[in-house]
Amino acid sequence: MFENVYIDSTCFLYAKIIMSIAKPLLDYAKSLNPQKGFAQSFSTFKRLMKYHRKYPWYLAAITILALIRAILFAIEPLYTYYIIVNVIGPPTNTSLLPGYLLVIVLAGTGYAISNFVLTYVHGIMSQYIVRDIRSEYYRALQRKSFSFYDSVGVGDLTSRATVDLQLVDSFLRTWLGTILNAVFFTIIILIIIYPISPIMTLISLVSMPFIFYFTTRLWTETMPLFMNMQLIMGRLTSYIQQNIVGMKTIRIFRQEEDVVDGFKGVEDIYVNTAISAGKIQSIYMPLGPAILTLGIALVYVYAGYTLSTNQALAVIEVGNIILFARYMMRLTFPIRDVSQTIGTWIAAYAGLERVLKMTDAPREVEDAPGARDVKIEKGKLELENVTFGYVKDRPVLTNVSFTVQPGEKIAILGATGSGKSSLIYLIPRFYDIQSGSIKIDGTDIREFKLASLRRQIGVVLQDVFLFSGTIRENIAFGKPDASNDEIVQAAKSARIHDFVASLPNGYDTPVGERGVTLSGGQKQRITIARALVSNPRILIMDDSLSFVDAKTEQEIQSAIEEATKTRTTLIIAQRFSTIKTAEKILVLENGSVAEFGSHEELIAKDGVYKRVYETQFVEKASPMLEEAGGS
Amino acid sequence: MSGSYGTFSAKEEERRKRTTSDRALIRRVYHYAQAYKRNLRIGVAATVIGAFTGLAAPYMHAIAIDNIIEPPTLLVKRFGISVLGRPYLAGFLWWIPLFAAIILSNYVFQYIQTYQMRIVGEKVVAKMRDDMMDKLQVISLRYFSEGEAGRIISRPTNDANTVRIFLRLGLTSILIDISSILGAFSIMFYLDLRLSLLAMAVLPVAILLVWVLGKYSRAAYRRALITTSGLTARMQEDLAGMKVTQAYAQEKETEKKFQKTQDANVKATIRAILIGSSYTPFVIGLRLIGTAIILYYGVAALLAGTIQLGILVAFTEYQFSYFMPLVDLVTMYDQYQSCMSAIERMFDVIDTKVEVVDVQPERSIALP
């Protein structure tokens, strides 16, 4: 395996992910349990209610406005009834008409205004709550470890905070108003019509239990399907993401057909689920209004029956019948709204679940009790019997021990999966070790406050990442209050100053989409400058020079040499030029230290280092395979 | 992800002008729907017939009131004649089954419409997505260059979803709205020409108002959308750079910047909600003025004996049933536009030319 020291690990990772994703995904989609979700939706709803607690005034305003709105909504049919009974008569009395019409218009306008204010207040509350949930989510993500970011796509995490929260938003915008409206309006109608005709009121209520029953059925039957759809869609999306991001690898391994077949299999399940859900929805959704309307026929039947049998006719007025019929027609709207709100909740629930799942995960690396700010004076580094694994009982590093003297530079060599990156990332506590100890200047790193530790260690990651913003902001990222001198000094050490100075706007040139386009080597040197700006005693570098040309390599090499001169440095070395300048070389094999010593010592030892040195560096194997691996 | 500055900006995507005409896009989508022609035809027919049967209900009430309930009641009231045992209410014998049949057929058509349109919507979008995925496997790798991933990913996901939702809800409500409006108009004109013209007097004002205020609202929503894109871009960049942030212990500082972006989004969205909901009071107010006009002249006509009570009541109901769809249609315009843009972007992927079949590097064989 050691011969593959050059091959980038990401290449294998993608191939593995893509090749193994299709089958589990299909199994997953088939295995989804429809029953479980229902109960869980209630507990999620309760959690969503907790976010409402911060806004009692908004809740109160919504309730009052909903009540006013429902009362005013009931006015128009009532006054039409008065017109029929009192104006048309008999006896006819047209003098009342203008007054009644005025009430209708005023009440309607009042209804419209309260509706408007309600929508607005509801909207503000929904935005605030979504903001609260998103902020919580963001802070939770800031606490996730490196391995989390290696395994989860940024696109997926972003879509949770945007697309999924939009679903929650559309539920939050109207839900309370809609439910209150249905409740208040029903109650108000009952209060109005009961004194007019108790029997007809009861008749119009006959349809209510049916409506309630079918609405519940709609809810219980479609809910699991919709949840599945959203889960499958989430998977489908990350499938598409993997496919697009890892396209190079897929092509190299000629996995195109497998990928597309797997994708289509999952998509079929999605489409079929969506259609089944659609069928259930189409059965139950129009049922409520239909039943309610049929209830009107019952009112007519009763009216007809009474008219032909009851002598007094006291209970039956044409106006009454019209009033009852119109109220029942009006009632179809809140009922339809409620079943729509249920639909939005189902979508919102699945979205919210996806967000909260991330928010709830515990923090992996934390300040130990009694942690303090410790100043690193010299930069002596001691590792003693360090054992570490991402998963318990599956160690990546076993009993690693070595000491680095202040100012020493150690080059780390090892095959893919030998634990190189894991090892250097233990120093700033990107991960916590399982046993053993790591000490800096004799102090255990767990006694440092996390921020204090990390700010004193310069880190150059393998991913060359710059934030959008100016070059100055990027270099000063770790020390926002850095002086201009400090920035220039760091840039000079990183051999990027001359280039930056040549730009028309110098250090204030923006980078990224709307700024200057930088080459891979220039970006890398800026990241080195970023690590140097706080003048750290310890520097760790994940050297990924793999994808630059010879000239750039030379420039970066010179930057690294300058940067590491006086600092304790751990550097993952990819090439001989780096190893050449290191005081010592550490060879990792299967998570253990295989060899540790100077170049001469290790050559003399005639072990694994010598073999690699002769096959890889002397013959200067082509770096093509790395290129194929992408990042 | 490596070597990139954050990720793509959705802003650019939103601002891009469309170059293909709506008609060309619709024709191509229709081409996809050809495979489900039967479902589509049944669905559209059911939608239109369903809307008409829905409109029949108020008219049925008018008949019940004017021809079945009112005559005997008037006999009793005006002339003191007892209707006991008389066959005046026999009308209900045919009215109730007819009414129930109309309601039931309305229900059945709604069921068919929802179900069939769902099938068409889901299958068409799935087919388009499949074509995109197929194409992505063969087009040049240059297409996947740095920073482009986000843009490409959003096509088979976000864009496809926009179209899905539009085909499922938007298209049917447009069909229902148009049928309801036309149906209500025809019935009203049939019932009483003069009263119809009076009822529609407020209509031009309402449409103008919705259109003008709708313009402001659309602008406000677009601004909110841009801040949402900004928030998405910020989120993506922060997450892509999270390792750097953690390495330099700058979590608090980055969060501050994030909160600033988020607050801008919250503010813009609240503003959009304010402007977006501001025209409904005017529209509702105008509708009620229309109702008052109908009642004012209606009562006069009723007392003069030119129309019957049931017709008058039916008028107020019909006015209710065309006004809201009309407002709905105007607001639907935005959804339609964003659907068209999404469709264009999807076809953009499907239409990408396969330049060269990528030559597979021979060295890949050497890998285990």
SSE topology:
The complex is a heterodimer of chains A (631) and B (368).
Chain A: H1 9-31, H2 36-52, H3 56-88, H4 97-142, H5 146-151, H6 154-172, H7 175-196, H8 198-205, H9 207-245, H10 247-252, H11 256-284, H12 287-309, H13 318-360, E1 381-388, E2 397-404, E3 409-414, H14 420-426, E4 435-440, E5 443-444, H15 450-455, E6 457-460, E7 469-470, H16 471-475, H17 484-493, H18 497-502, E8 510-511, H19 520-532, E9 538-542, H20 550-564, E10 568-572, H21 576-581, E11 584-589, E12 592-597, H22 599-605, H23 608-618, H24 624-629
Parallel strand pairs in A: 3-10, 3-11, 6-9, 9-10
Antiparallel strand pairs in A: 1-2, 1-4, 4-5, 7-8, 11-12
Helix pairs in contact in A: 1-9, 1-11, 3-4, 3-7, 3-13, 4-6, 4-13, 6-13, 7-8, 7-13, 8-12, 9-11, 9-12, 9-13, 12-13, 17-19, 19-20
Chain B: H1 10-15, H2 22-33, H3 37-79, H4 91-138, H5 149-191, H6 193-199, H7 203-240, H8 242-247, H9 251-304, H10 309-350
Helix pairs in contact in B: 3-4, 3-5, 3-10, 4-5, 4-10, 5-6, 5-10, 6-9, 7-9, 7-10, 9-10
Concise synopsis of the structure shown:
The complex is a heterodimer of chains A (631) and B (368). Chain A is α/β, with parallel strands linked by helices.
CATH architecture of the domain at 20-191 in chain B: Up-down Bundle
DSSP E strands of chain B, number:
0
- Number of helical regions of chain B: 10
Per CATH, the class of the largest domain in chain A reads: Mainly Alpha
- What is the multimeric organization of the chains shown? heterodimer
What is the name of the CATH architecture of the largest domain in chain A?
Up-down Bundle
Question: What can you see in these coordinates?
Answer:
Chain A folds into 2 domains: 15-360, ABC transporter transmembrane region fold, CATH 1.20.1560; 367-456 and 539-547 and 567-631, P-loop containing nucleotide triphosphate hydrolases (Rossmann fold, 3-Layer(aba) Sandwich), CATH 3.40.50.300. In chain A, helix 3 packs antiparallel against helix 4 (97-142) and helix 6 (154-172) runs antiparallel to helix 13. Chain A has helices spanning 9-31, 36-52, 56-88, 97-142, 146-151, 154-172, 175-196, 198-205, 207-245, 247-252, 256-284, 287-309, 318-360, 420-426, 450-455, 471-475, 484-493, 497-502, 520-532, 550-564, 576-581, 599-605, 608-618, 624-629; strands spanning 381-388, 397-404, 409-414, 435-440, 443-444, 457-460, 469-470, 510-511, 538-542, 568-572, 584-589, 592-597. Chain A has 631 residues and is an alpha/beta fold. Chain A has a 6-stranded mixed sheet, sandwiched between helices. Chain A contains 24 helices and 12 strands. Residues 1-15 and 621-631 of chain A have low confidence and may be disordered. Chain B is mostly helical and 368 residues long. Chain B is 81% helix and 0% strand. Chain B starts with 9 loop residues before the first helix and ends in an 18-residue tail after the last helix. Residues 1-11 and 361-368 of chain B have low confidence and may be disordered. The chains are: A alpha/beta (631), B mainly alpha (368). The interface between A and B is large, with 137 and 130 residues.
